[in-house]
Amino acid sequence: MKICCIGAGYVGGPTMAMIAHKCAGHTVTVVDINQDRIDAWNSDLLPIYEPGLDEIVQSARGKNLFFSTDIDNSIREADMIFMSVNTPTKTFGVGAGRAADLRYVEKCARKIAEVCDGDKIVVEKSTLPVRTAESIKRILESNAEGRKFQILSNPEFLAEGTAIEDLQEPDRVLIGGDQTPEGKAAIQKLVDVYAEWVPRDRILTTNLWSSELSKLTANAFLAQRISSINAISALCEATEANVDEVAHAIGTDSRIGPKFLKSSVGFGGSCFQKDILNLVYLCEHFGLPEVATYWNSVIEMNDYQKHRFSGHVLSAMFNTVSDKQIAVLGFAFKKDTNDTRESPAIYVCKDLLEEQANLTIYDPKVPESKIRQDLGLSDDDDSITVCSDAYEATKDAHAVLVLTEWDEFKALDFKKIYDSMQLPAFLFDGRNILDLDALRDIGFEARGIGKG
Ligand code: UDX
Ligand code: UDX
Fold first, then answer.
1. Number of C-alpha atoms within 13 angstroms, CB side, residue 301?
2. Does 398 sit in the ligand 2 pocket, CB within 6 Å?
3. What are 284-306's pLDDT values in tens digits?
4. 291 Cβ below 6 A of ligand 2
5. Best mutation site among 156, 264, 304 for ligand 2, i.e. most ligand atoms within 8 A of its Cβ?
6. Annotated active-site positions, please?
7. Which residues have a Cβ under 8 Å from the Cβ of 329 and sit 6 or more positions away?
8. Using an 8 Å Cβ cutoff, are 284 and 277 in contact?
9. pTM for the full model?
10. Does the C-beta of 84 come closer than 6 Å to ligand 1?
């Protein structure tokens, strides 16, 4: 088969690289409107950082994996077209701040209708509100002129930083489609692609709407676990409890399970907030305000947690950080990615800049230009300095903040850092990755999350 994927982002790029790597018999072309991004995919420095991705891309690129901006031809030649374009939260008009902005998805559908000259299977890879497939189908069918289109929903469950592992051995692959004979035949074609490496019993097939809703629900449940444990972290701080101990104790109950119970400065990433907002909007649309309020509280708790953290920094440092140097370690929304979308670091930094702090920021993978763009600062704004390592960032600082759980932060020489800082030397571990007792022995005024 010839496969085309529109959107060479964090989802489209790695997913298509894995399909090409595992399925030598299929040719995969990933297209994007962004020429720079495509050039980077064709170079030695890929546009996204993801452990193990380089090897997978190198094994297939130029053989059965291609990156191109020739969108029309790639669509025309393909038997199966994945849509993996971004679906940001709408910033204007009806549903602003909550509904998904589907303009790119609709543009893709119209482009497919315009350039195709034969039958196609169109696969939604982007996370979409329930019943989007219906809109895509209408756009395609009203322009069909005898051609036949089948729409499938195949949501992606990979997490950034572990994308290659997640793609290699997914818990499940979900494929939704029409329950007609033609729909089932299309589902089978996509099942056959994944069955090249995923055990058949892990490939689930459902109707279209169940598949779309499962993606939103999965992310809402995952985010809910973090907001739940973060809510408890506030209570732990008010008592003598320790949130890591509480999380461990409840996680050993097999009905609860140990994963996704790590209390933190808050969750970030391109999906959780966007998908819950989407769910909330859908619930309101369908006249279910109580359900909408229930899920919205997961986001409210996350906002509370991010601002609570900056509030702690301020109150511990004698209620003023004005003109103080604060070292920020980590800017990505989690470790092992260069992605900063909705990163809690952005919110914490903005709160502290508002208080007129000077920030020295270091992240192993996020470039200075991205940090400045996320904070809305020009190149010559000297309220932040982006450093090339953690020691440079912490030198002369009044406080150190750990905002991403990069492994290298655990291996830092904190005695050396302490000796180079202003006293009292504060340290706030927003990810609970450091040994606070050992830091206190060195002399730090050290605090974590959810530790009374
Ligand atoms: C996207 C969605 O945001 C997410 O909801 C979904 O689950 C997977 O796809 P991601 O891959 O992380 O996630 O987005 P991004 O890295 O922004 O990549 C999207 C790409 O699509 C960009 O490179 C953009 O240039 C491209 N694009 C967008 C097109 O090629 N054509 C368009 O019309 C719009
Ligand atoms: C998420 C889903 O996990 C994935 O299945 C879906 O396809 C896309 O959205 P992603 O956003 O890439 O993936 O990362 P994830 O590992 O889920 O982390 C999201 C945020 O939650 C990060 O900011 C992370 O630091 C935070 N987190 C995660 C916690 O604070 N505590 C935890 O225990 C786990």
1. 24
2. no
3. 999 999 999 999 999 999 999 99
4. no
5. 264
6. 271
7. 362, 363, 390, 393, 394, 400, 401, 402, 403, 404, 406, 409
8. no
9. 0.94
10. yes
